[in-house]
């Protein structure tokens, strides 16, 4: 309702004021703790802050230092590998599960929750479970050897060239069920009459799937991509629990980089600049998406 | 003194003006219907009367008291919404008395008022049910009960029948009309159904594009539409509008059209030639209602100006009580209304009687009626 | 067809169907195994784990690891077990969920039924706050909590979780109330009900499902949080996720795998229970957290 004119009676004016008063605390908190803090961290990224914030501006020095650090380039390379595999494999598995589950499967009601339950777990729990399962001395490799397959080798988690892929495995395990749920909802939302019409037109299975069903899942693809990519950039807990960033620095990601530079290596300026880069990465994905979503909703 | 006065009211959303300087005076006991195509601003006007939308400029007064800025609940009006807006979690009884409760009316008085209204609308047995357990017609009644119980100065209805099926709509229409006659309340009623507008109202305001096109009794609106928009909007099937040329011969004026073959036909007009001075030989738009084009046996015996012609019938549509025919004049489809048992078939060349008593003509530029 | 929703099914032969079932069952195994093996091994004595096969059932069933993980395991420097941290988490989660849900409901109500110029932009700003990498607020947050005297306290964590939870709870209620008929609000307004009365009497009675969705989402997220707990808490306020990480990664002594597993299960139990009891709402929350509306 529009704002009340000057001559409005008391009740009308009060009723126009209350909603804004109710919204105000949340807005104040968001503006301070989110946007205020973003500005603050942004500012720090241009200062020579080390163990404590300093307000001494040094221009882009932190950023140029940052990109010269091999630790950071490793982190973003790892992020690139992790994010693309994590998004790609989760989407593939999620889509396959949803498509197959949609074939009038008996026991669907039982299978669906099994695929989805890891989403309810903390990444720390997921990390704990997989850390052990992937440990060659006691987990999968050990078991295979006990079962007589002595040539079986699976020590990626101890191998700095492959450790990042174990993070992918655990992360996919945790979120692919969620992607399945999104695609399943998309499939169930497709208008049956369109499918019947396509059948009448003589479309075969594969054509039906490629030409009619997949295109209609576009919104689900988009949402899955947006959600997974922002989870990827934010990934922190899983790495900490699964590999602790190791072996060596083999599984460092920007999030772990930022934490260690800021809080254990006392390079707050550099830590802040890495956080700014993370924010910009996510903003590049989220801002257009949110803008489009909110526009449509008008 | 008018009871509800809408004076020079304008509504803007940002830079967009959706209502332009609307003036309407409503007398006590009147049944005013706002009618017009979708998006013309009917609901907006009604919501401004209710106080649910702010008035951008102008005044709305009830019983001479300006209502601008007065809270909706303090205007002593009641509103029946299109979706009925019954509170889903409250029983019918609670729904009806919620407003009284909000106004601090004691319980016994609320119950008494509720009983009275429930009796009047015959919804006594429904009082303990939830809205979800009611049929469309019952919901409609409860919504009216909720409005009635407040004993308001003005009732506002926003398309209250549009969610009902055709049969129920006609029944409820009659019921609303009876209620109005019995209680003598003042009603402003929005609809885009022109039959509802004709049957219910004491006066109609036809709106288009945020302007009032014409304000008048149903008969005025139907017989003497102000302009082509009103002529075409009111009536079903709608008025035939034909390009014609004015021919003036002494005191008599006529409009010339062509039949299906392109041969000229001269139709005398019910207007004196004087009112058409200077238009001889110019183009006008001639409006003839379908019921004025009939088979000769079905023609109105009391009509003063009747023209006989022969024309080819393109389509017949038997509707039970009448048979509608489509024929071609001036190269356009023209609808006529025959008696149900008139013998016409598609493709026939049939005799037609054209009753020109109520024919109207419009200026093709301004689209206003020429009087 | 009786189940209209399943017409996206393709026409498939017997071989294809068998393969589909096989794939689905294998995947089910993939999801079940890591956690399932963890549960089974938490019921073994340590010697059976280090000396035996993780895939076999315990020869000797024992709850010792569970007991140890709960009350005697070494976490950090103290042999307290998970118990105090479990309660820390509870003390943090309950108020944080309650406050953010109430605020979200009110915000959603204002943003849909009392709209004003610029409200969509404000909502967009709130929503974006859910997706920021929290690294961007860690430094100033640590300082502000310190200034407010909330560093290392449960109240501090509650504040943090409320602040960064409002966006989602507002999103849920806004999307839900957006399709709640505005005519009902207008009718109540004409009946004389004010802002809070309309909320309480008209909207709240229909808000059960979305409230459950919101509570479950917030509960799961806040319970599972690690970053804020690790950054802003000390012994008296550390949540269970941090404790679990400390338990598993403490480098001293023998690795008591069975105790680690039991600890992990304690950390997972509350959210798993919620998932089992109210899975339907959990899924709905996930969906509306991503696909709006
Ligand atoms: N909040 C708003 N902001 C901008 N324009 C609006 C708003 N509400 C209504 N309008 C515009 O005002 C015009 C009138 O709307 P209104 O709802 O009064 O139409 P109506 O005559 O009731 O139509 P209908 O028969 O479809 O109910 C429309 O063109 C509409 O698009
Ligand atoms: Mg309307």
CATH homologous superfamily caption of the largest domain in chain B: P-loop containing nucleotide triphosphate hydrolases
CATH topology of chain A: MetI-like fold
From the spread of the alpha carbons, the general shape of chain A counts as: flat
Counting DSSP H or I runs of 4 or more residues, the number of helices of chain A is: 13
CATH topology of the largest domain in chain B: Rossmann fold
Strand content of chain B: 35-45%
Q: What is the end-to-end distance of chain A?
A: 15 Å
What is the terminal-to-terminal distance of chain B? 30 Å
| CATH second-level architecture of chain A | Orthogonal Bundle
Q: What is the residue-averaged pLDDT of chain A? A: 85
Counting DSSP E segments of at least 2 residues, the number of strands of chain B comes to: 20
The profile of the biggest β sheet of chain A is: none
Order of secondary-structure elements of chain A: HHHHHHHHHHHHH
Low-confidence stretches of chain B: none
Question: Can you give a write-up of this model?
Answer:
The complex is a heterotrimer of chains A (298), B (371) and C (293). Chain A has one domain: MetI-like fold, CATH 1.10.3720. Chain A is mostly helical and 298 residues long. Chain A is built from 13 helices and no strands. Chain B is α+β, with helices and mostly antiparallel strands. Chain B has two domains: 4-233, Rossmann fold; 255-267 and 288-361, Nucleic acid-binding proteins (OB fold (Dihydrolipoamide Acetyltransferase, E2P), Beta Barrel), CATH 2.40.50.140. Chain B is built from eight helices and 20 strands. A six-stranded mixed beta sheet of chain B has the order 6-7-8-3-9-10, sandwiched between helices. A five-stranded antiparallel beta sheet of chain B has the order 13-12-11-14-20. Chain B is elongated. Mean pLDDT of chain C is 85; it is low at 1-6. Chain C is mainly α. In chain C, helix 3 (64-71) crosses helix 13 (257-277). Chains in contact: A-B, A-C, B-C. The site of adenosine-5'-triphosphate (ATP) has 11 residues of chain B, from helix 1.
Chart the SSEs and their pairings:
The complex is a heterotrimer of chains A (298), B (371) and C (293).
Chain A (H helix, E strand, L loop, with lengths): L9 H35 L16 H8 L1 H32 L6 H9 L6 H11 L6 H7 L16 H26 L3 H9 L4 H12 L1 H17 L2 H6 L11 H11 L3 H29 L2
Helix pairs in contact in A: 1-13, 2-13, 3-7, 3-10, 4-7, 5-7, 7-10, 10-13, 12-13
Chain B lengths: L3 E10 L2 E11 L4 E5 L6 H9 L6 E6 L2 E2 L10 E4 L11 H11 L4 H15 L14 H13 L5 E5 L7 H18 L2 E6 L2 H7 L2 E6 L2 E6 L1 H6 L4 H6 L6 E10 L2 E7 L5 E9 L10 E6 L4 E2 L11 E13 L3 E8 L2 E8 L9 E7 L4 E3 L9
Parallel strand pairs in B: 3-8, 3-9, 6-7, 7-8
Antiparallel strand pairs in B: 1-2, 1-4, 4-5, 9-10, 11-12, 11-14, 12-13, 14-20, 15-19, 16-17, 16-19, 17-18
Chain C lengths: L13 H29 L3 H6 L12 H8 L11 H31 L5 H13 L3 H13 L6 H25 L3 H9 L4 H9 L4 H17 L2 H6 L7 H10 L7 H21 L1 H12 L3
Helix pairs in contact in C: 1-13, 3-13, 4-7, 4-10, 4-12, 5-7, 7-10, 8-9, 10-13, 10-14, 12-13, 13-14
The complex binds adenosine-5'-triphosphate and magnesium ion (MG).
Magnesium ion (MG) binds next to helix 1 of chain B.
GO molecular function (chain B): ABC-type transporter activity; ATP binding; ATP hydrolysis activity
Protein name (chain B): Carbohydrate ABC transporter ATP-binding protein, CUT1 family
GO biological process, one term (chain B): carbohydrate transport
């Amino acid at each position: 309702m529009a704002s009340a004119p000057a001559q409005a009676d008391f009740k009308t004016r009060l009723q126009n004021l209350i909603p804004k008063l109710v919204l105000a605390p949340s807005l104040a908190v968001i503006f301070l703790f989110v946007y205020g803090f973003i500005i603050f961290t942004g500012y720090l990224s241009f200062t020579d802050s080390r163990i404590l914030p300093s307000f001494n501006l040094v221009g882009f020095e932190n950023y140029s230092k940052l990109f010269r650090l091999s630790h950071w380039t490793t982190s973003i390379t790892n992020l690139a590998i992790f994010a693309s595999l994590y998004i790609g494999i989760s989407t593939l598995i999620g889509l396959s599960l949803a498509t197959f589950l949609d074939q009038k499967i008996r026991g669907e009601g039982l299978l669906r929750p099994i695929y989805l339950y890891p989403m309810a777990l903390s990444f720390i729990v997921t990390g704990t479970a997989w850390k052990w399962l992937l440990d060659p001395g006691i987990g999968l490799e050990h078991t295979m050897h006990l079962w007589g397959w002595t040539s079986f080798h699976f020590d990626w988690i101890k191998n700095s060239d492959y450790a990042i892929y174990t993070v992918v495995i655990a992360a996919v395990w945790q979120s692919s069920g969620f992607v399945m749920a999104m695609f399943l909802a998309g499939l169930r939302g497709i208008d049956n009459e369109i499918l019947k019409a396509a059948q009448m037109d003589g479309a075969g299975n594969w054509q039906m799937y490629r030409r009619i069903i997949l295109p209609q899942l576009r919104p689900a693809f988009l949402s899955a991509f947006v959600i997974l990519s922002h989870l990827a950039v934010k990934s922190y807990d899983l790495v900490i629990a699964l590999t602790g960033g190791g072996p060596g620095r083999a599984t460092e990601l920007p999030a772990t980089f930022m934490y260690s530079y800021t809080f254990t290596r006392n390079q707050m300026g550099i830590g802040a600049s890495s956080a700014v880069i993370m924010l910009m990465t996510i903003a590049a994905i989220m801002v257009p998406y949110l803008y489009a979503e909110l526009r449509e909703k008008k | 003194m008018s009871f509800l006065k809408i004076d020079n009211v304008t509504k803007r959303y940002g830079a967009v003006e959706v209502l332009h300087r609307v003036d309407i005076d409503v007398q006590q006991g009147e049944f005013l219907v706002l009618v017009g195509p979708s998006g013309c601003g009917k609901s907006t006007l009604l919501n401004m009367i209710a106080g649910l939308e702010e008035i951008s400029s102008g005044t709305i007064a009830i019983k001479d008291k300006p209502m601008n800025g007065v809270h909706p609940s303090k205007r002593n009006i009641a509103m029946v919404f299109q979706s009925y807006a019954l509170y889903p979690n409250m029983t019918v009884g609670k729904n009806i008395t919620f407003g009284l409760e909000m106004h601090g009316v004691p319980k016994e008085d609320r119950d008494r008022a509720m009983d009275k209204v429930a009796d009047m609308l015959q919804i006594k047995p429904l009082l303990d049910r939830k809205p979800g357990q009611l049929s469309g017609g019952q919901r409609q009644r409860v919504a009216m009960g909720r409005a009635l119980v407040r004993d308001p100065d003005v009732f506002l209805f926003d398309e209250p029948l549009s969610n009902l099926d055709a049969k129920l709509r006609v029944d409820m229409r009659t019921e609303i009309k009876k209620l109005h006659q019995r209680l003598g309340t003042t009603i402003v009623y929005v609809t885009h159904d022109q039959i509802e507008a004709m049957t219910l109202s004491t006066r109609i305001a036809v709106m288009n594009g945020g302007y009032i096109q014409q304000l008048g009794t149903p008969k005025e609106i139907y017989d003497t539409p102000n302009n082509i928009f009103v002529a075409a909007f009111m009536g079903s099937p709608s008025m035939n509008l034909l390009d014609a040329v004015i021919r003036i011969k002494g005191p008599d004026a006529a409009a010339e059209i062509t039949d299906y073959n392109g041969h000229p036909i001269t139709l005398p007009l019910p207007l004196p030639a004087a009112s058409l001075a200077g238009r001889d030989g110019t183009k006008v738009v001639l409006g003839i209602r379908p019921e004025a084009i009939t088979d000769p046996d079905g023609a109105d015996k009391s009509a003063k100006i009747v023209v006989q012609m022969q024309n080819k019938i393109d389509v017949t549509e038997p509707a039970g009580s009448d048979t509608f025919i489509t024929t071609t004049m001036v190269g356009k489809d023209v609808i006529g209304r025959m008696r149900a048992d008139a013998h016409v078939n598609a493709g026939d060349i049939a005799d037609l009687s054209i009753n020109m008593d109520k024919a109207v003509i419009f200026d093709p530029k301004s689209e206003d009626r020429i009087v | 067809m009786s189940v209209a929703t399943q017409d996206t099914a393709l026409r498939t032969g017997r071989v294809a169907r068998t393969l589909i079932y096989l794939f689905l069952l294998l995947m089910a195994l993939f999801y079940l195994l890591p956690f399932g093996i963890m549960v089974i091994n938490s019921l073994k004595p340590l010697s059976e784990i280090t000396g035996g096969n993780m895939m076999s059932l315990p020869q000797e069933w024992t709850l010792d690891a569970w007991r140890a993980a709960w009350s005697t395991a070494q976490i950090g420097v103290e042999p307290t077990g998970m118990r105090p941290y479990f309660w820390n988490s509870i003390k943090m989660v309950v108020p944080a969920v309650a406050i953010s849900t109430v605020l979200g409901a009110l915000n959603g109500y204002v943003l849909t039924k009392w709209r004003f110029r610029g409200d969509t932009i404000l909502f967009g700003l709130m929503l974006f706050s859910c997706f920021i990498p929290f690294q961007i607020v860690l430094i100033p947050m640590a300082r502000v909590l310190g200034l407010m005297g909330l560093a290392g306290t449960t109240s501090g964590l509650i504040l943090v979780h409320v602040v960064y939870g409002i966006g989602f709870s507002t999103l849920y209620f806004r999307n839900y109330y957006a399709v709640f008929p505005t005519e009902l609000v207008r009718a109540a307004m004409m009946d004389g009900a004010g802002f809070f009365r309309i909320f309480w009497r008209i909207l709240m009675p229909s808000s059960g499902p979305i409230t459950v969705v919101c509570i479950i989402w917030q509960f799961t997220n806040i319970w599972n949080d690690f970053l804020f707990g690790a950054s802003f808490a000390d012994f008296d306020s550390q949540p269970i996720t941090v404790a679990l990480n400390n338990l598993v990664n403490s480098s001293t002594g023998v690795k008591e795998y069975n105790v680690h597993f039991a600890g992990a299960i304690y950390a997972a139990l509350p959210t798993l229970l919620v998932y089992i009891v109210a899975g339907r709402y959990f899924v709905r929350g996930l969906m509306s957290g991503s696909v709006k509306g």
